[in-house]
Predict the structure.
Amino acid sequence: DVKVTQSSRYLVKRTGEKVFLECVQDMDHENMFWYRQDPGLGLRLIYFSYDVKMKEKGDIPEGYSVSREKKERFSLILESASTNQTSMYLCASSPHSSGRSPGELFFGEGSRLTVL
Amino acid sequence: GQNIDQPTEMTATEGAIVQINCTYQTSGFNGLFWYQQHAGEAPTFLSYNVLDGLEEKGRFSSFLSRSKGYSYLLLKELQMKDSASYLCAVHSGYSTLTFGKGTMLLVSP
């Protein structure tokens, strides 16, 4: 069964702290993504990666960075957390080609981050 | 630019049929997805349309009209467990999906 695992379901951090959100997939997918989900705004793409050490900005990259040192792992980093980064963060992965449904994303359970 | 619109909320009764609409304006089109998301859980794949027409999968069907930039998700024989958020997403030719804001469906007894 395909699996995307996010390291923490719930985190509480203080303003200014550095925050790491980890995501691991066991499907050998090339593509990995970080979205945030907020009420009334839906899912918005922060960063994505097509391959190891590759990264591309999504729609809202400001205040975030990412790291992809291994194919199965994609990390989201908040260098200095702020209260407006309180959100649900969803990691997803997809293969380069996906047969019947190219582009289909496989999501992790999400990490709910609260910044105080 | 990318614009995907779907209703914010819908309500329906157990056993009924509900249609959730999605309109889109995107710079490219490589397919349209519907995902279901229960509260506190990850979105899960429901359907994919890339050609015009209706795709049926059990109680769920999805329709696409590329010329109109329009899709709908049809849920039949509604059950309480169908209460969830339904996300419309467009694959615009890169590997990324652009999502609408989601439609919260509430099924009442």
Remarks:
- The two ends of chain B are 41 Å apart (CA to CA).
- The mean pLDDT of chain B is 94.
